[in-house]
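Hi all, long-time lurker, first post. I run a small reading group and we've been trying to get comfortable going from sequence to structure in the token notation. Rather than ask abstract questions, I figured I'd post a concrete chain and ask someone more experienced to write out its structure so we can walk through it together at our next meeting. Sequence below, copied exactly:
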Amino acid sequence: MTDRFMLRALYNWTLSLASRKSAEAWLAVIAFVESSVFLVPADVLFLPMALARPKLAYRFAAVATLASTLGGIAGYYIGYLAYEALAKPVLAFYGKLAAFEGLKSCASEDTLVMLLVTSGLAHLPPIKVVTILAGVAQVSFIFFVLSCILARGARFFALAWALQRYGEEIRLFIEKRLGLLAALAAAVLIGLYLAVKYLAGSGTATC
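-- Answer (accepted) --
Happy to help. Here is the structure in token form:
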């Protein structure tokens, strides 16, 4: 109950930032910290901001993408340089340590590529888990940065396009079904990944 109350309080506080004059700066802050230490995704703030000022939706998407990528880099180096001192306590605090250890046990290069894409596009697994994991596994830094820009940018710019085109109606749909949409997006991506891998000649899927 306490965890749910804390999550709701964080969600409401994040949502309240959208009405402030400093909302754009707060969007950058939330997008940055969600990649390594914060629980609430930047989408919660981005959606009402883009809906209230649709002409600036793509600008907000660019800010969120840049800040999220920089936050991802911070998370990468937390995993790379300070896993025991910083990353482990953060993951344990949010109850993500077990999930992290499970992913780490089968963190092949192919698996990490897939996780970087699905986390950036659909928050599955949570972004902070995958960014830290990428650092621990010492994924190519250039590849990591490019995957952040492409996957996270695709998410924010797709939301900006949808809000500009469909307005309040699509916002309500997204907010009510964000978890389902994320799960479906991740399932499609995983399916495509496995299909491409099979067609490439492996014919098998490994952890």
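A couple of things your group might point at:
The radius of gyration is 17 Å.
Residues 2-199 form one domain.
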